[in-house]
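hey
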């Protein structure tokens, strides 16, 4: 087994790779010996600390603003009732829709039917009515 290890260590590709690694290591060590590297390192540390302080200060100010100016959301019960009446009237008259030019029928509120242009929409009260006219039911809704 030792002989195999010696043969592997003596492989020219391995020696070439080791020489390349040693050259790169030497260049890095030489580069770190320059004084300007230390200056850049400290400048980067100062920039990181400054930007972190700025972000933390901004977050603190935002939280203080929200504490002093709380957001409240309120609604009128009459508006809620009006919305419910609108939705029920809309869905009772128009349960399904399709495009005049298409072959797929969608239930009301189906997002897959959003591509259908409003002026091309036709409405059906039941899925059977649409199927009898040759439309197929949407697989997405």
């Amino acid at each position: 087994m030792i002989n195999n290890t010696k043969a592997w260590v003596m492989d020219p590709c391995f020696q070439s790779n080791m020489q390349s690694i040693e050259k790169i290591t030497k260049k890095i060590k030489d580069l770190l010996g320059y004084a300007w590297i230390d200056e850049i390192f400290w400048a980067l540390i100062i920039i990181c600390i400054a930007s972190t302080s700025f972000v933390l200060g901004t977050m603190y100010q935002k939280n203080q603003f929200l504490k002093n100016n709380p957001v409240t959301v309120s609604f009128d019960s009459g508006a809620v009732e009006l919305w419910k009446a609108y939705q029920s009237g809309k869905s009772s008259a128009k349960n399904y829709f399709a495009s005049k030019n298409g072959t797929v029928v969608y239930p009301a509120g189906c997002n897959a039917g959003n591509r259908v242009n409003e002026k091309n929409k036709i409405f059906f009260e039941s899925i059977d009515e649409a199927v009898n006219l040759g439309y197929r039911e949407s697989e997405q809704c």
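The two ends are 68 Å apart (CA to CA). Residues 91-137 form one domain.
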